[in-house]
Amino acid sequence: MAEVWTTGKLLEWVTGYFTKHGVDSPRFSAEMLLAHVLGVKRIDLYTGFEKLVEEAYLTPLRELVKRCAQHEPLAYLIGKTEFYSMEFVITRDCLIPRPETEMLVQRAVEFLRLREGRQHVLDLCTGSGCIAAAIARNHPAAHIVATDISDAALAVAARNVEKHRVNDRVRLLCGDLFDPVIAGLDVTQFDLITANPPYVSTAEYEKLDRNVKDYEPKQALVAGIDGLDVYRKITAAVDRFLKPGAALMMEIGYRQSAAIRRLLEAAGIFSRITVEKDFSNNDRLVAAFKTLR
Fold first, then answer.
1. Contacts 24+ apart (CB under 8 A), 81-85
2. Per-residue pLDDT for 255 more than 50?
3. Phi-psi bin for 268: left (phi > 0), alpha (psi -120 to 50), beta?
4. What homologous superfamily is domain 95-290 in, according to CATH?
């Protein structure tokens, strides 16, 4: 006789299985997978603990549980994640948004709210489009150009821009950093430039956790021997794309603040450079404000 499974019984079993296999946040992961398979909200699981789960749901659940126990990221398994209190479509073509990156959105929105009129924003290395869409949703005067070198990542970004109904204010362009921004066709002077670029060194990449190294796109992670290649390219070209008094805000690796500060100082165009720590007390966000002239 086949075993009878209720929602509550399944949650307990999957949580225990994930705990045994060292999955991060085992209870949360179990809840998200089960809610995904059943097609319900996570909160609904708690109002239906005694509800019987039909056999048809068990086969896809088993497959996802197996993959999750092998450390395939949860966001890729269920095809979505939450960022800045918004749900985003996620595939293996783009990096999974991290909670630390929400600080970049928060500071960007705060900066834009101090300015008047339409604000032009350039989001480099946009990936899933999470930064661009979150800024657009939280600042109606923001008009954003978002670029990425990956066509596949931009396809994901397009879905997210459409999902959050900001496609009238977010334009997606394919190319390397500033290259797709063409004078005469696009705005070329911006009030704010944001970037969460690749910043992992080649040596660091080899030591990354397997759930990152084995699944997330290498192109979105690695930036040369010291992890600074993309920052060098940004700081070398940024002057002509920033209005006077505008800001450049970038996420950085926790050991890179001194080197990136030197790059920004060498550019000779910024009146103020700040570095902010994340909730783990690691340097995470650099903001540079262009001289008014």
1. 83/130, 83/134, 84/130, 84/134, 84/138
2. yes
3. left
4. Vaccinia Virus protein VP39 (3.40.50.150)
